[in-house]
Amino acid sequence: MGKNYVDIENDRGEMLRYRKHANGRGLVAHGAKVHPSAIVEAGSYVEPGVQIAAGAHIGRGVWIESDAVIGPDADIAPHAHIGSGAAIGAGVKIGVRTQVGTGARVAVGSLIGDDETIGDGERVATDRRGLRLAA
């Protein structure tokens, strides 16, 4: 049986240890907290300080940067990028290849489409059809 972790060198020359999450085999850094019922698919990276709540689904190839928070039952589609310190509310759906900037906030139940970009520090709320609501 193979090892259940991998060591990867970051841009600053530091070695980070990632373990393979039991549900999906995605890589979760030491210091990140992922609920056992969450799914982190293979090819995804969860950086230190990230919190992923119960029932969340992290698609293949997603990168979640440090200190981001993913709410319960959130669904992040493949190849999305969640910036450092971003907060994704409960039940949010993030589309394929969507970029969520550093410190951005996505309100509970929002629907963010494919290939969208949410800027650094931006706050977004949508209805069930994905239409943005006034701030």
Would you mind describing this structure in some detail?
- It is a single chain.
- By secondary structure, the protein is mostly beta strands.
- It has one domain: Hexapeptide repeat proteins (UDP N-Acetylglucosamine Acyltransferase, domain 1).
- 0% of the residues lie in helices and 34% in strands.
- The protein is built from no helices and 19 strands.
- The strands form three sheets. It has an eight-stranded mixed beta sheet, with no helix packed on it.
- The protein starts with a strand and ends in an 11-residue tail after the last strand.
- It comes from Microbacterium deminutum.
Instruction: Give the helix/strand class.
Output: mainly beta
Q: How many alpha or pi helices?
A: 0
| CATH domain fold name | UDP N-Acetylglucosamine Acyltransferase, domain 1
User: What fraction of the residues are assigned to beta strands by DSSP?
Assistant: 25-35%
Rg over CA atoms? 14 Å
Biggest sheet, strands in spatial order?
1-2-3-6-9-12-15-18
CATH architecture identity: 3 Solenoid
For the biggest sheet, the summary is: 8 strands, mixed
Series of H and E elements: EEEEEEEEEEEEEEEEEEE
The name of the CATH superfamily reads Hexapeptide repeat proteins
Distance between the termini: 52 Å
Query: Any idea what the shape is?
Result: globular
How many structural domains can be distinguished in the coordinates? 1
Oligomer: single chain
- Please give the number of β-strands: 19
What is the C-level CATH assignment?
A: Mainly Beta
Q: What's the overall average pLDDT, rounded?
A: 92
The helix content is: under 10%
Low-confidence stretches: none
Pfam families: Hexapep
Keywords: Repeat, Transferase
Protein name: Transferase
